[in-house]
Design brief:
Strand order of the largest sheet: 3-2-1-4-5-6-11
Shape: globular
Number of helices: 10
Number of strands: 14
Helix content: 25-40%
CATH class of the largest domain: Alpha Beta
Bound molecules: uridine-5'-diphosphate
CATH topology of the largest domain: Rossmann fold
Number of domains: 2
CATH superfamily of the largest domain: NAD(P)-binding Rossmann-like Domain
Distance between the termini: 34 Å
């Protein structure tokens, strides 16, 4: 069985990736600081508590297990916080992965899959966004993701590192089997906030602006199910292990939904009234973000299976109603 080091494997997307890897014959080895991750979500292989900035710990893992590839899901991901606390973001999202990549080089581990982001594109010049779109991120979070992409390209040229950067649009949904889901502290993402409101845990959902140039005035995003993200990671992994040198791929559904549509759809699925109120725009929110994922479909053979907003929200609702307090409940 091939070992895959999953950094951030106790988090929302990383934990599902571990389950998916295990189902497909790989052994995930989790390294997670548990700052945001959940110990309860690590079930499919060995667990090491720590960060990828700890070269001694990485060396210990690499000398204990023959690792075929590393997947990195351990970036901090709050855009607003990245503006007020950039040092935290450059430390965790840029400096720590540099230690990981240097240690991989020393240990001759040559395959890397990176969770990148549509935030690397910044304000879109055209929709849908393809991989050829210029990358001009507008916040420190997006810049940290782009810096790692650039580091990967340079390590590829100089040291032969093979890497795939997967640029996610809005990751959403929960394990279709109901075992794993989204439990962020604090929660800032629209779908869990809407579902917590449906559960009565919040009084109302704030809609950040209804004066955008969109059909109903609210922002449009391309929501992509975590199971479809996991599928893309596995395909990319198998291509790398088969000899592909690497690349960058968008992962989205090529279809957008407004904030109002998300709230309406969640209302139908939950059967609950979901109160909402219009508030100020949130800084740094483009009106529309929709990705073209033709390249991932063509080159990786990626076929999203949970593309509809209804399915995304249904799986998320199934998790939230059974875990009203998150992993602790
Ligand atoms: N949003 C909102 N109210 C909230 C949280 C988010 O209206 O309480 C909007 C946000 O402005 C964006 C969309 O929902 O247009 C998705 O935001 P989220 O934070 O989930 O993901 P992001 O697009 O920032 O990655």
């Amino acid at each position: 069985m091939r070992n895959i080091l999953v950094v951030g494997g106790a988090g929302y997307i990383g934990s599902y990736m571990c389950k998916y890897l295990s189902k497909h014959g790989y052994q995930p080895i989790v390294l997670d600081s548990l700052v945001y991750g959940h110990r309860e979500a690590v079930k499919w292989g060995p667990f090491f508590e720590g960060t990828m900035s700890n070269a001694d710990l990485l060396n210990r893992i690499f000398s204990t297990y023959q690792v075929s590839a590393v997947m990195h899901f351990a970036a901090f991901c709050y855009v607003g916080e990245s503006v007020t606390e950039p040092a935290k973001y450059y430390r965790n999202n840029v400096s720590s992965p540099l230690t990981l990549l240097e240690t991989m080089r020393e240990q001759k581990v040559n395959n890397f899959i990176f969770s990148s982001s549509c935030a690397t594109y910044g304000e879109p010049l055209e929709i849908p966004i393809s991989e050829a779109h210029p990358q001009h991120p507008i916040n420190p979070y997006g810049r940290t993701k782009l810096m790692v992409e650039q580091m990967l390209a340079d390590f590829g040229n100089a040291y032969g590192l093979k890497s795939v950067s997967l640029r996610y649009f809005n990751a959403a949904g929960a394990d279709p089997e109901g075992e794993l889901g989204e439990d962020h502290q604090p929660e800032t993402h629209i779908i869990p906030l809407v579902l917590q409101t449906a559960l009565g845990q919040r009084e109302s959902v704030s809609i950040f602006g209804d004066d955008y140039p969109t059909k109903d005035g609210t922002c449009i995003r391309d929501y992509i199910h975590i199971a479809d993200l996991a599928q893309a990671h596995l395909l990319a992994l198998e291509k790398l292990l088969d000899g592909m040198s690497g690349g960058q791929y968008n992962l989205g559904n090529g279809d957008g939904h407004s904030v109002k549509e998300v709230i309406e759809t969640a209302g139908k699925i939950t059967g609950m009234t979901i109160p909402s109120k219009i508030t100020e725009r949130r800084a740094g929110d483009p009106a529309v973000l929709i990705g073209s994922s033709q390249k991932a479909m063509r080159e990786l053979g990626w076929k999203p299976e949970f593309a509809s907003l209804e399915t995304i929200i249904e799986t998320a609702w199934n998790w939230h109603k059974n875990h009203p307090g998150g992993y602790v409940s």
